[in-house]
Amino acid sequence: MTSTQTPPDTHPLDADAQKVSSVVKTQTEDLNPFHIAQHQFDHAARYIPDLKAGLMDYLKFPDRVITVEFPIETHDGTVRNFVGYRVLHSRARGPGKGGIRYHPDVTVDEIRALAAWMTWKCAVVDVPFGGAKGGVVCNPKELTTSDVRKITRRFITALGDNIGPYTDIPAPDVNTNQGTMARIFDTYDMMHPGRNNRPVVTGKPIDIGGSFGRREATARGCLFTVQRALSRGMVEGLDSVKDATVVVQGFGNAGSIAAELFHEQGARIIAVSDSRGGVVNSDGLDPADAIEHKRKTKSVVGLSGTKTVTNEELLTVPCDILIPAALENQIRADNVHEINARLVAEAANGPTTPAADRILYERGIPVIPDILCNAGGVTVSYFEWAQNIENEQWDVDVVNQKLLVKMNKATDVVIDMQQELNTSLKQLNDARKKRGVADTPLEPVELRTAAYVFAIKRVADVTLARGIWP
Ligand code: NAD
Questions:
Q1: pTM, whole model, 2 decimals?
Q2: 377 CB less than 6 Å from ligand 1?
Q3: What is the pLDDT of residue 437?
Q4: Are 403 and 217 within 8 A, CB to CB?
Q5: Is 397 buried (19+), middle (13-18) or exposed (0-12) by CB count in 10 A?
Q6: Whose CA is nearest to atom 4 of ligand 1?
Q7: Ligand 1 in reach of 275 Cβ (< 6 A)
Q8: CB-ligand 1 contact for 90 (6 Å cutoff)
């Protein structure tokens, strides 16, 4: 994700190309999210000796990419055209599942990457969904609530039957929320009267079939994976979040609720940020105060008793746990050496680049990868979908308990896979030599690669068990 804004008179599809090329020119790293997702896949696939080459190609690319364009009449009476994407990466394990984001920097490659990450995430946490994602190139900060409502309705109408309760099910993501999900449900329901359409979208308000615990689920899942990883000795000398110092980048759904939940468990939240900047108080701040301040002023910046820092500075604040909860490419080769945390917990999708990943591993800083760390969101989305199909509503304690079981199990399988791979490197390398593979030997893996290996195997097994049609 770059900070490049779409010039008002530039077509978003042209802007996509400009964004990617400006990134390639100005960075030594390739920050195209889809290239990163493919790199992560290729890297992990080297650790799966029996993965067929053709199957690998199939699993790497999305099944379907949809681009739609539609106009709305905005609050000032002008007609503006918007571009939206919906990418279905895989339905091997179940219907596509993934959020919809509204952001000026949305590109088709970003959505392709996010859709692929959803496939691997659903496999890691073992919910019966494939991966999908959607986005509209727009800046909600410059639009009214009524404009955004029109965008949602036109986008969903344009997608038509490409979404559905058993084919592809949206959810909230950056700059979309329960209200947006209510509009998605309502629009789809208008188009398909006379049947139970509640499972077409998750993250809905409770009164129209939302699940208790869904709003907090991404953050709660992040807390559960961190707790499990710490209890399994992932960070020497830190076995619980109690008294741990925590920095949170991004103060929206995932970040602000993570700050609250970690605070509730006795952690000290020493810095938080949003798109306008960050605030630090090394004695700790109360997330409830920051939420209230943001509600009143639209930013955490200026919260009383705190010092203001830039988002770049925020990432370098010494802490036990750093939670990136904003956007992609925040921890990169050019700033990773300044990260001063003992554990990174990726509440956001794609916040760490592959080069930064490797450097963090070499520095002994474990990263709980996005496809595990933020999987609480899709897990409770699955619970919501299951409740909608049965026309039921579970108590919040039931939801949270089921979430805990899922997140603990997923954390265990990823840590176990890392240990398994790292203790069998010699056999894996010998097998590669025998098959005449001539590239560099396999090295010990971090948790992301372990999670990928586990997920790719799971999706590959199901794909082969179903059989390559016809
Ligand atoms: P959100 O729109 O609720 O919040 C995003 C926050 O990030 C806002 O506070 C915004 O000001 C801040 N932000 C934007 N750019 C920033 C920057 N450069 N530096 C610091 N802060 C910045 O979105 P969200 O739903 O909380 O999503 C955040 C991340 O979590 C995304 O990567 C998303 O894909 C991921 N995620 C969300 C969910 C979910 O259920 N909402 C589930 C899984 C993963």
A1: 0.94
A2: yes
A3: 84
A4: yes
A5: exposed
A6: 252
A7: yes
A8: no
